[in-house]
Amino acid sequence: MASSRRYVISAAMFIQLLMLTAVASPLADGVNPLGDFTKMNDDLIEELETSEDSKIVPVIFQLNSPMTESDENRLTELGFDLIGRAPLVDGGLVEGTISDVRHLSNWDRIEYLELDKPLDFFYLPPEWGGEPKTDAGIMMHETTHVVTATDSWSRAIISPNGLVEYDIDLSFTEWDGDGTAIVDLDTGVDAGHPDYDYLEPWTGDKAIYSAKFDGVGWTETRNSDTSSGHGTHVGGTIAGNGDASSGRRAGVAKGGQLVALGTGDGASIFAAEQGLEWTYAHSKPGQNQHHIRVVSNSWGTDGDYNPNGVIAQLTDKLTFDNGVLVRNVLATLEQTCMQTHHLQSQLLH
Prior knowledge:
The protein is of the alpha/beta class. It is built from 10 helices and 12 strands. It has 2 domains: 79 residues, Peptidase S8 propeptide/proteinase inhibitor I9 (Alpha-Beta Plaits, 2-Layer Sandwich); 228 residues, Rossmann fold, CATH 3.40.50. The strands form 3 sheets. The chain has a 6-stranded mixed β-sheet, sandwiched between helices. β2 and β3 form a beta hairpin. The chain is elongated.
């Protein structure tokens, strides 16, 4: 009887040992076949947990140092198509299956992975997929008064030597953003609108450049807003000259210059990342010919702020390396007014 009990106990211990070995064996070499979730954002983790392994997904990756030809070959070996490069964050955009993403996350060169998602544009009109609104709220011609931009316009500019600056007609020079360029990173701008005065690229007094992302690079075009009109409206709020309304609907920084970057009809996080890379390259200290000082992002995605994501990484680089303010405009009226007021203070200094 005692021998039988010892046999049962030994058998049970053996089975437990087998189970423990089975669970631990995938991690014995430090590789989890389900993927390394510590290197992924929440959206990507959710995609891996809810989708079939054969589903193809777009993923933005960051390496722990600049990408090399060897890295590109490795991505191909892992089953990925390299769609675009993002040198400022040592990464790019790839497409591959869920199964491939799991393997990719275990590569020691990977710093971070995030799912490339479509952008949500705030205040999108109902005819373009936005939520219908019954309350018009503050109208555009009232915005400049709400954020006290009109008070700023009326202030005289005092030069460093203490003298008041005057225009040619001896009127006070307005404090209206003239000499500062703002990047409107959105759906683009229809620069043929009277409020933009678009002439040739990098000329004119208002919209000085308009381009659309084609998946590879930026193509100059007068109308870079072919998807919704959202960016055209936002650009007018920022720096429209108000010509179409005899000045009634001028932008907050009505004297400022505008650079319109359209993220394309299928706007996504990676397209926005490419817009921030473009802005970084054109706003480097000592090479900022058109005095780009602000980027307006009137869009976002759902979820919490993630400091590891490419948008956050590039926002930090633009701020600390180039001294460019990147503003992400929020959806509520109160928040929008507060951020617009802060935007105004940056534009008009």
